[in-house]
UniProtKB/TrEMBL annotation:
UniProt protein name: Mg-protoporphyrin IX chelatase
Record-linked SUPFAM superfamilies: P-loop containing nucleoside triphosphate hydrolases (SSF52540)
Keyword ATP-binding: yes
Gene3D superfamilies reported for this sequence: Magnesium chelatase subunit I, C-Terminal domain, P-loop containing nucleotide triphosphate hydrolases
Quaternary data: The magnesium chelatase complex is a heterotrimer consisting of subunits CHLI, CHLD, AND CHLH.
Primary localization: plastid
Subcellular location: Plastid, Chloroplast
Species whose genome carries this gene: Rubroshorea leprosula
Length: 455
């Protein structure tokens, strides 16, 4: 599904020579290694200059939107970037090697089984995606580049829960356990079988629909700038979030963005009722705390008492005011027509529409499993290598990759000082890096034998 979504994304226009898919229409978002004014690919100009058109402008090219998958065993250096050992040895200076986040800018960043991702890696990923900027300050590197990909992640609740603050940063949360009809299952097996045997024929069969979807996305990106959402519609989304028991403000913020995107996708300039309902279903409902019991009838409040009698003059003035109010009410009615007549959540936090009970049960299931913490032990001798660190005494496990990166910028200088030409690589004690290892904590279960002896 993630790769299918990537297939309908339109191509992007990038600056030739940029390592982070720099957008030529947004010069303020250029990376540290590229300057739109000078065209330098590196800050000190060691790697040459960018390419120019005949009119003196920066050369650009149209490329396919990137699709980058983060493996579960990814290291911090590969994710955010590190020192390029080969180039650093050649030039004698610290040269930056971009990571996966630089490649994923303006594309799709896919994480399979995000609940199994290392906690430190998920925290780094979360910070970068929240800020929209990757800042690297390590090993003599000072570098930054924009990082605004479309994050798509999957996880299986049976294999472990995803932390609540991580799920809260993801706008739309869908469930793959939706019930399917018999015809839908047959159609799914049919198209999957055809794709495995004749993939080219399937691509040709959906080529027209794919091109139409690409065109719709390109137009929607332009329409989105002019789409407006009224204050009353925002109040409706906030009230739904309050009734659903959502904490924080991300629920209504993401819901408003989703509603505007739905309107732009259909070429409309205003958000309507269906957009609001779909936004609540996709964004607010998975974050809600609802009960499985059907909502009870709420007690209706008695009507207000009639106003006291007034004299004729005040009655005439009131009549004039009512006429003005009627005119304003007609305008308000036109606006209120774009707001649903009833809420999805009742005042008690229960679901009004029983068809959405399945989503509520899925949300409650995730809530119940979210409190499980992963028992992890960090050490320097056992476990999986997660990141390098400065040694605090004797080194038990040497991080060869990090040690070489730390020593690479000084190879040229150290060769000049070596008169005997005895070695090709010079590594000093200050370059040494140790491995930081992590492993799951074991559980010891002690049972009393008196119970079995009694039996």
């Amino acid at each position: 599904m993630a790769r299918g979504l990537h297939a309908i994304l339109p191509p992007i226009d990038v600056v030739v020579g940029s390592i982070a898919n720099a957008d030529p229409s947004c010069p303020d978002e250029g990376d540290s290694l590229f300057s739109f004014s000078t065209g330098f690919l590196w800050e000190d100009g060691l790697a040459g200059r960018g390419e120019y058109e005949s009119d003196g402008s920066i050369k650009t090219q149209v490329v396919r939107s990137p699709f980058v998958q983060i493996p579960l065993g990814v290291t911090e250096d590969r994710l955010i970037g590190s020192v390029d050992v080969e180039e650093s040895v050649k030039t004698g200076t610290t040269v930056f090697q971009p990571g996966l986040l630089a490649e994923a800018h303006r594309g799709v960043l896919y994480v399979d089984e995000i609940n199994l991702l290392d906690e430190g890696i998920s925290n780094l990923l979360l910070n970068v995606l929240t800020e929209g900027l990757n800042i690297v300050e390590r090993e003599g590197i000072s570098f930054k580049h924009p990082c605004k990909p479309l994050l798509i992640a999957t996880y299986n609740p049976e294999e472990g829960a995803v932390r609540e603050h991580l799920l809260d940063r993801i706008a739309i949360n869908l469930s793959a356990d939706l019930p399917m009809s018999f015809e839908d299952r047959v159609a799914a097996v049919d198209i999957a079988t055809q794709f495995q045997e004749y993939s080219n024929d399937v691509f040709k069969m959906v080529e027209e629909e794919t091109e139409y979807a690409k065109t719709q996305i390109i137009l929607a990106r332009e329409y989105l700038k002019d789409v407006s959402i009224s204050r009353e519609q925002i109040k409706y989304l906030v009230m739904e979030a309050v009734r659903g028991g959502c904490q924080g403000h991300r629920a209504e913020l993401y819901a408003a963005r989703v509603a505007k995107c739905l309107a732009a996708l259909e070429g409309r300039e205003k958000v309507n009722v269906d957009d609001l309902k779909k936004a609540v279903e996709l964004v607010i409902l998975p974050r809600s705390i609802v009960s499985d019991n059907p909502p009870e009838q709420q007690n209706q409040q008695p009507p207000p008492p009639p106003p006291p009698p007034q004299n004729q003059e005040s009655a005439d003035e009131e009549q004039n005011e009512e006429d003005k109010e009627d005119e304003s009410d007609e305008e308000n009615e036109q606006q209120q027509e774009q707001i649903p007549e009833e809420f999805i959540f009742d005042a008690e936090g229960g679901l009004v529409d029983e068809k959405l009970l399945f989503f509520a049960q899925q949300a409650q299931r995730r809530k119940g499993r979210a409190g499980r913490a992963k028992n992890v032990i960090f050490s320097e001798d056992r476990g999986r290598y997660i990141k390098p660190m400065l040694p605090k005494g004797p080194i038990k496990r040497l991080a060869v990759d990090a040690t070489l990166r730390a020593a690479a910028p000084y190879q040229k200088l150290r060769r000049e000082r070596d008169t005997q030409k005895s070695r090709k690589v010079f590594v000093e004690k200050t370059d040494m890096r140790a491995k930081r290892m992590a492993r799951k904590a074991g559980a010891l279960v002690a049972m009393s034998y008196s119970y079995y002896l009694h039996i």
